[in-house]
Specification:
The complex is a heterodimer of chains A (116) and B (111). By secondary structure, chain A is an all-beta fold. Chain A has strands at residues 5-7, 10-13, 19-24, 31-37, 43-50, 53-56, 65-68, 75-79, 88-95, 106-107, 111-115. Classes of the chains: A mainly beta (116), B mainly beta (111).
C-alpha cells in the first residue's frame, strides 16, 4: 500500500512568487492534515480536512495560504505571494479515524520550501 | 489544549535501554497518548499509542501512570539507527481534532 506522498520534495522560489504543494493521502483516509516546521522551531499545525471540508484551519498563518481538497482525495497548499518567512518544511499527514482521539497519523516526507 | 513537555535531548550508548518521559498535565479524559519518531529528511513515524497502564509492541513500550499526567516511552537495547527525534503527542478535540507537536526529544545513540 502506498504511503502519503508529497510533491515536490524541494522547491526554491523567489519572494513574491507562487508555489503549490501537493499531498496525496493514503487511499481511504478521510482525515488530511498540513503541518509546517520553520527552521529551529516546532512542527506547527496548519489545518485539518475531513474529506473535502476544512474541519480546522486555525493554524493557517495568513490569507496568503490557501488549502484545497477537491473531491476529498489529494490536497494542495498554495502560497501566494511567498515571503521569506514561509521557508520551512511542509508536512502532510493522513489518518483513517475521524471521531476519536486515538487516531494514528501517517506522514509524508515533506516538502522543503526555500523562499529567497 | 494538552501541551506536552519533554527533555530537549538525551544521549545513550548502543545496547542500553532508553526511557523518555513526557508530561501532559492538561490531558483530557478521552485523549490518547501517541509517540512518533522522526529521522532527518523524513516525516514523523508512528511508534506506539496508549491510554493507560502499559502498552508494548515490537518496537517499544509505553508506560502511563494512573493519573495520566505523564507517560514514558521505553526503547529496549537501542542501536545507532535509533538516533532520531521522538515526539510525544496528545490529540485534543476542540471542535476538530488537533494534534499538537512539542519540541520533541533528540536522542543520540553512540557506539
Amino acid at each position: 500500500e502506498a504511503g502519503v506522498t508529497q510533491f515536490p520534495s524541494h522547491s526554491v522560489i523567489e519572494k513574491g512568487q507562487t508555489v503549490t504543494l501537493r499531498c496525496d493521502p493514503i487511499s481511504g483516509h478521510d482525515n488530511l492534515y498540513w503541518y509546517r516546521r520553520v527552521m529551529g522551531k516546532e512542527i506547527k499545525f496548519l489545518l485539518h480536512f475531513v474529506k473535502e471540508s476544512k474541519q480546522d484551519e486555525s493554524g493557517m498563518p495568513n490569507n496568503r495560504f490557501l488549502a484545497e481538497r477537491t473531491g476529498g482525495t489529494y490536497s494542495t497548499l498554495k502560497v501566494q505571494p511567498a515571503e521569506l518567512e514561509d521557508s520551512g518544511v511542509y508536512f502532510c499527514a493522513s489518518s483513517q479515524v475521524v471521531t476519536a482521539t486515538n487516531e494514528k497519523l501517517f506522514f509524508g516526507s515533506g516538502t522543503q520550501l526555500s523562499v529567497l | 489544549l494538552a501541551k506536552t513537555t519533554q527533555p530537549i535531548s538525551m544521549d545513550s550508548y548502543e545496547g542500553q535501554e532508553v526511557n523518555i518521559t513526557c508530561s501532559h498535565n492538561n490531558i483530557a479524559t478521552n485523549d490518547y497518548i501517541t509517540w512518533y519518531q522522526q529521522f532527518p529528511s523524513q516525516g514523523p513515524r508512528f511508534i506506539i499509542q496508549g491510554y493507560k497502564t502499559k502498552v508494548t509492541n515490537e518496537v517499544a513500550s509505553l508506560f502511563i501512570p494512573a493519573d495520566r499526567k505523564s507517560s514514558t516511552l521505553s526503547l529496549p537495547r537501542v542501536s545507532l539507527s535509533d538516533t532520531a527525534v521522538y515526539y510525544c503527542l496528545v490529540a485534543t478535540y476542540t471542535g476538530g481534532f488537533k494534534t499538537i507537536f512539542g519540541a520533541g526529544t533528540r536522542l543520540f545513540v553512540k557506539a
